[in-house]
Amino acid sequence: MDAMLPLAHSAPEKATEDLEKLSISAFGNARSSITEHPLSADEVRKMTDYFHASMYMCLGMIYLRRNPLLREPLTLDHVKRRLLGHWGSDAGQSFTWIHMNRLIKKYDLDVLFVSGPGHGAPAVLSNSYLEGVYSEVYPEKSQDEEGLRRFFKYFSFPGGIGSHATPETPGSLHEGGELGYSISHAFGAVFDHPNLIALTMVGDGESETGPLATSWHSNKFLNPITDGAVLPVLHLNGYKINNPTVLARIDHKELENLFLGYGWTPYFVEGSDVPTMMQAMAATLETCVTKIREYQKEARDSGKPFRPRWPMIVLRTPKGWTGPRKIDDHFQEGFWRAHQVPIPEVLKDRSKLKELEKWMRSYEPEKHFDESGRLIPELQELAPTGTRRMSANPVANGGSIRRKLNLPDFRDYAVEVRTGGVTNSGSMANFAGFLRDVVKNNMDNFRVFGPDETESNKLSKIYEAGKKVWLGEYFDEDEDGGNLAYAGRVMEILSEHTCEGWLEGYVLSGRHGMLNSYEPFIHIIDSMVNQHCKWIEKALEVEWRHKVSSLNILLTSTVWRQDHNGFTHQDPGFLDVVANKSPEVVRIYLPPDANCLLSTMDHCLRSENYVNVIVADKQEHLQFLSMEQAIDHCSKGIGIWEWASNDKGEEPDIVMASCGDVSTHEALAATALLRTHLPELKIRFVNVVDLFKLIDEKEHPHGLAAHEYKAIFTDNVPCIFNFHSYPWLVHRLTYGRKGQQNLLVRGYKEKGNIDTPLELAIRNGTDRYSLAIDAIDNIPTLGNKGSSARETLRNEQIRAKNYAFHEGMDPKETEDWVWPF
Amino acid sequence: MDAMLPLAHSAPEKATEDLEKLSISAFGNARSSITEHPLSADEVRKMTDYFHASMYMCLGMIYLRRNPLLREPLTLDHVKRRLLGHWGSDAGQSFTWIHMNRLIKKYDLDVLFVSGPGHGAPAVLSNSYLEGVYSEVYPEKSQDEEGLRRFFKYFSFPGGIGSHATPETPGSLHEGGELGYSISHAFGAVFDHPNLIALTMVGDGESETGPLATSWHSNKFLNPITDGAVLPVLHLNGYKINNPTVLARIDHKELENLFLGYGWTPYFVEGSDVPTMMQAMAATLETCVTKIREYQKEARDSGKPFRPRWPMIVLRTPKGWTGPRKIDDHFQEGFWRAHQVPIPEVLKDRSKLKELEKWMRSYEPEKHFDESGRLIPELQELAPTGTRRMSANPVANGGSIRRKLNLPDFRDYAVEVRTGGVTNSGSMANFAGFLRDVVKNNMDNFRVFGPDETESNKLSKIYEAGKKVWLGEYFDEDEDGGNLAYAGRVMEILSEHTCEGWLEGYVLSGRHGMLNSYEPFIHIIDSMVNQHCKWIEKALEVEWRHKVSSLNILLTSTVWRQDHNGFTHQDPGFLDVVANKSPEVVRIYLPPDANCLLSTMDHCLRSENYVNVIVADKQEHLQFLSMEQAIDHCSKGIGIWEWASNDKGEEPDIVMASCGDVSTHEALAATALLRTHLPELKIRFVNVVDLFKLIDEKEHPHGLAAHEYKAIFTDNVPCIFNFHSYPWLVHRLTYGRKGQQNLLVRGYKEKGNIDTPLELAIRNGTDRYSLAIDAIDNIPTLGNKGSSARETLRNEQIRAKNYAFHEGMDPKETEDWVWPF
């Protein structure tokens, strides 16, 4: 294996010296790394007209509800009564879009546009309208004056069009409401799409976020043979809401070094003069596309993957470009004041309304739109056609090109269980065999993502089918179990944000995947998961969007086995975050053993448009259900385990319930203790796999009806419920249930330390002894027998505690425990 | 103002050419940017001995429970029965610590050590022990053989010492359980500590996280006159748990460019040969410290702040350095297998035990520890003394050096309220006046942090006292309301992670501060806040730790005013995350108006060791309480608003309750509607400021006793509770309360769109009409009167909806609403 990858090239060929001297606040004639002039005068004129038509539309969207083509003098009555929208980054984005149109036509490219800067949707929406897609998708926004009027009016209007590239936006798979994920989404979309180029606008504000800052390193995980390319355009717009951006205020050399350091080849296009900028951008973008094709050809012809220093563009244009430089005495273009509505005073000040009108007319709408209000044919010709239009790229409607997974029969991977609670096995390691074959059967369609934990999480069996993608340097040691490969199916970087972003991009562009992570650190991506839930929920309301695969999050290294790593590694609260999202899109499963895990994962991998969260420990565990029992149990999602119960269908004295594998293990041990010490007790044992079974059927499609819930938990029998996560999640899910107050829920309550598993459980009251004692304390009729059993149990607990304290590990008997009946 | 800051210098002076050619996997003799040999042979010998003593201890901590100095041949009985701990990054960290010791002594430096790499505590702990601090703090871990034995045994042992730099670790303010925050914590600690140097070990795994990747840009926010310096040592250890690190597998030039691009001057120290590495590190570290002092002197002597390209070190040593290169046929040193316990087989394999013994003896413990088991005096002398010891730096026990805030009297900022619910005012803009004076009174002791939202959040008045710190370039436009300054009190970067990290570092090192953020995006730092909560909770258990200031998070731009920004900007669920943390450390306040906000913030700024979350809208609102009433209400945290109630102390027909300002506004409007349309109804109006009042007193120190709760909510009267956040949080907090089932809670339920505020509320059932109708539906005795009022209200609601739909804004009457009684 090569010790060093060939270095493609490390600096732009024609670095203009001027660039280094460019005062970073001064705009004017373009200066750029590539100084050719590929456009004819006629091309410049047409592209400028198209650009102006788009800029005109951006203003129309912000201001107008009537008179969309300014065929009458502008009056207050034409203006929206509440002005909303963002002007700041529109010009730079639209400018880039239009330049890519030229190259798509010239080279028949397959390009996806990813809009990173916040609130830049007018650029995307206006181009979608100009190339006809918006009207095809939303016929009432027709390509005529009335259609244009509606398009303007309903932008940022109740029930209307959002100011981000929301799911309603044709051609979008990246909303950008929360900033920071444009690059990782783009990479996700191009993995295994070898001909796709993701033209990705990256905001300079967005660039300050952590997730974006690390996502530039995604280029070490992209294979030039099997994957497409990401072409980032860092939009040095200069300002955020009220502040300059960091990257726009460091010197030129620093900025160039930064991106060379990230492994890219930055090409600069800087200025504000539209005609010269047209030439500069045309030349530079074409160079970048050509470079991309060359690298791909080199790798594909030779069959030897390498890591090119892929091209990227730094586009420095003033914020609010093409707008007025000053309004009254205040800077506007090239300052943060251009961020949102540029002249909000139009509603109150007639002279400002005049100013707006003049500005809008400067884009010459009457020249670009014909009598009917449609873009003139000469300009229409500038856009590509059909699915080559970026706003119609099917990749952005990933469900439409999705192929189903070819899944092996999960039952073939079953763990043999003849009697529940007797044999030990590693559920996760066993599942890894199934997962390996899922990988093997879907080598261009399914990937596994994780922040350097796949092996630690006992899933390394999947490397037999697909190794870890690695385009960094290789060392000799890597042969000794490194499991790295240029082409692989496992994606690992120590950034939960990047992993999640890649997976989201991969799924939204029509493929399948799974993220595995330590449970405590999944909170790092709370907000990303929230946003993804919102995306797929809204997408359900959009008729033309096809369903995508579910986003599967497998959590392991769970709280109850994070004893030795201590308090910082203990947090099962991700479930609370997920449970807040819409019931239409979230599902939470806690399979208690290996066969239930297989059945659950098979179900999740087949499902559509959900976020599935699956919690399962990676250590060895007692196994409870045979495959047949597991399928039955998981398809119900909740059930009474008859084999562990002795209530024989009568009303029990106590219900022992559990949700989560370690929790089930302890609850069942508690049940065994109770049945041993108090054999006359009638105990019902209940297990929950599908957490939303607990909630009322009116609140969640999986919820149990009242009579179903009663048939399991009764209305009046006390229930000791051992829960994997924070106990109050069960309280809130069962709110309103009759008999809710009979639930005594035990779970994690922020009581941790350096511990053994047993110690940690005792500290939180979730160990077998505490649970059994809870049960005794909640059955008032037990009397002396209860007190005596209670004392026995307490002594056993103390003995176990002492052992752990002296030896630094749990006593053997707690580890070798088996179900005795 | 200077348009360009002077560039300090952009490349190391003596870049050794060899460096670029260094095969990045090959180790051996040191190669470094600085090639001087400042150490005498004797110094090298002593420092190597000290280093070996520390390495010996790291192994002792992982393996031994008896025979700590190997005075007997090692047997299985001496070894812990459960082997836990991490060896991988210990050597590099300890090596760096020891080198800094030399310079602290030579230059009398004030240095804080921040340990970024995961599980690197043995390096920190062993050094703390060697320099005597550990025994001073924990006398039972005395500086003798028995103390050493205990020290070893209790590492990663139940109830013992953690493998991160936990709160129990002297000299630590950064635990590093979750990775990514070492640099931002370090910057937080040195702000306003002009003489402090934070020597910050950054793991190369950690470096892949988003938060770390962006935090390098903190150097644009550090003032060389008023702040200290951060000296990062990027520890290119090469591996994470099971993967190589990205930064260790890119070529040398890329790595150098990356850090030049981040604005640092990287100095390289690379190799594994201890004697030559000793010289290289001594020379390089000294150069860095000298550079730091030069830059500081230049700025301080001239009074002109500038942005130096601060020095940093890239330290490339093999993972598990000084351990065996191979064990059996598998790579160990310089590979990921050295991450955790290097030879776990010692428990089962006698030959492996021999191998371990040989390795441990190679560090020659008998040479470094005297008869009693104490480090020999010759080596003791290498460490600094007193508080100059990094493990005794008082900054790491920030509470011990904390000065109280000098707070103005918040009552002086009161909004005049003669009658509740009549006058409008902006609570946040009003609070900004108080905050400005807090800044003014505490110019070296208090900072405000935020991700580019301080102005948007209506807090810009604070710029009158302290502007936004900015060490990037300045443009002419900045004079036009840019509010930037070299020295300021407001810290803004578009990275919630960096803001939170800075604030945590600032507070933990003994100062005070506040973060302001949009509510929806605070989820980005869920995990950081979780970790901070865990830190301060554990710190409470550590006797020698003094209390620090609370970490205050002010959330605004809240869900109910994120109508126009749409669904992605709507998420009030941070409260659920916080409510999961220990009741000892979390507090949640939702002040309903301006005077309550003042009273709440005053309380929060005075408080200690909490995470306070305060939720308040930034728009204009009706004001309800006079300052006197507000103080009374906030000190109770919950109360009946007599002026809005007409139950006159009798049992009401309905309780109308609210928590949150917009929610209160609507609940009160609903109450007015009910009283207007159904004047015979007896209504009690309740408001909650302190959310934890709802929980039982046994669960949280702020919780109400049962009789107190009953006195407000009754046991049996229906209550319509309008809540700011997701409704089920109220259900879980009131779990177990008598009468809990009478609560009908309305709140946000993931129903959003592009809306007006009224529309958004109607969609979620939290508007005045829906609430009033809910009340009617829950009073069975109303009969026909109820039906008729219900119909009237429904018609009013439809009229308002239609207006919003047609005009794109809410009808005036809903905005101009006043309390009519």
Intertermini distance of chain A = 57 Å
Overall CATH architecture of the largest domain in chain A: 3-Layer(aba) Sandwich
Overall mean pLDDT of chain A stands at 94
Fourth-level CATH superfamily of the largest domain in chain A: Thiamin diphosphate (ThDP)-binding fold, Pyr/PP domains
Domain count of chain A, please report it.
3
Q: What fraction, in percent, of the residue positions of chain A are helical?
A: 25-40%
Q: How many strand segments of chain A?
A: 23
Q: Please state the oligomeric state of the protein chains shown.
A: homodimer
Unreliable parts of chain A: 1-17
Determine the structural class of chain A based on helices, strands and strand pairing.
alpha/beta
For the largest sheet of chain A, list the strands in their spatial order.
1-5-6-4-3-2
Radius of gyration of chain A: 31 Å
Give the percentage of residues in beta strands of chain A. 5-15%
What's the level 1 CATH class of the largest domain in chain A?
Alpha Beta
Number of helices of chain A: 26
CATH topology of the largest domain in chain A: Rossmann fold
Protein name (chains A, B): D-xylulose 5-phosphate/D-fructose 6-phosphate phosphoketolase
Keywords (chains A, B): Lyase, Thiamine pyrophosphate
GO molecular function, one term (chains A, B): aldehyde-lyase activity
Pfam family, one (chains A, B): XFP
Describe what this molecule looks like in 3D.
Chains A, B: Residues 618-819 form the Xylulose 5-phosphate/Fructose 6-phosphate phosphoketolase C-terminal domain. Chains A, B: GO terms for molecular function: aldehyde-lyase activity. The structure is a homodimer of 821-residue chains. Chain A folds into 3 domains: 46-396, Rossmann fold; 410-621, 3-Layer(aba) Sandwich (Rossmann fold), CATH 3.40.50; 637-816, Rossmann fold (3-Layer(aba) Sandwich), CATH 3.40.50. The first copy, chain A, is 36% helix and 13% strand. The first copy, chain A, has 26 helices and 23 strands. The longest helix of chain A is centred in the middle third of the chain and has 29 residues, at 274-302. Chains A and B meet through helix 8, helix 9, strand 8, helix 15 and helix 16 of A and helix 8, helix 9, strand 8, helix 15 and helix 16 of B.
